Amino acid sequence: MELRWLESFVIVAEELHFARAADRLHLAPSALSAQVRALESHLGVRLIDRGRRTRPALTSAGRLFLEEARLTLAQAARAEAVGRRAGRGELGHALIAYVASAAFSGVLTDALTRCAAPGTELTVQVRELETPAQLEALACGDIDVGFLRWRPEYPPEVTATCLLTEEVVLALPATAPLAAYEAIPVAKLRDENFVAPHFDEEYGCRDQILEVADRGGFSPRCAPPVRDFIAALTLVGGGLAVALVPASLRRVQIPGVAYRPLADVALTTRLVGAYRKGETSPAVRGVIRRLREAAATATV
């Protein structure tokens, strides 16, 4: 049974006039009549009485079948709409993971807002996950998109797009004498204790500490690495260390922490969006498109 047969029958049932029904369907009356006959033959029952001198009329079977035909056509239209929307990435499910520092960049929250925009019915789940675990989860399909700090290399099946390049600033105790500076000369950091996230969490932090120390002409003193930037800022607020952090973390108002730019060295860090190469899921492609849109308008 073909949908066009159902549509033809419904229009004839509404018009009770083959010529007018044929005009609505842009068909020849003979073609329309043939479709209705094909439907009746398929069902093995007459649906429309065709009188030579009277208007067509629905049989009792036709009246019962009309309601079901309308429901079937409506459901087919809904199915078609769902398929088209899913193909445009407006429906479906995606799992996003992020490192803690990515939450303060604004890119992640903007992308989530775009995924929840009117007319979009994406189901998006988010979870915090360290960078190595994200890359492993992407490769095996446990997550769909990752927000993480730049890495020098990625698994063969994973690619990454730079979402945001931001300045690195110094987080220091608010009561420290150095907090009086508007910008911190790196040579003044000679006697400070540096804390950084673990290498596997935020690649490049230790390299940046070494660059600052080299520019300042000293060997850095480093505290044991911590899990993430929030843990580093907690130590800073306690007066135990200083930390080099992405500028977006200035949004984190931890008591006792001040943020200052570096006066004589320019450091940056990159936030990237990682996903599988050749991703086939329309929903995931839709999320990727939205995170790129969010990145295009991101500010720190």
From TrEMBL:
Domain HTH lysR-type: 1-59
UniProt-recorded Gene Ontology molecular function terms: DNA binding; DNA-binding transcription factor activity
Alphabetical keyword list: DNA-binding, Transcription, Transcription regulation
Pfam families reported for this sequence: HTH_1, LysR_substrate
InterPro entries: LysR_HTH_N, LysR_subst-bd, WH-like_DNA-bd_sf, WH_DNA-bd_sf
CC terms in the record's Gene Ontology section: protein-DNA complex
PROSITE patterns in UniProt: HTH_LYSR
Protein family according to the UniProt entry: Belongs to the LysR transcriptional regulatory family.
Name listed for the protein in its UniProt record: LysR family transcriptional regulator
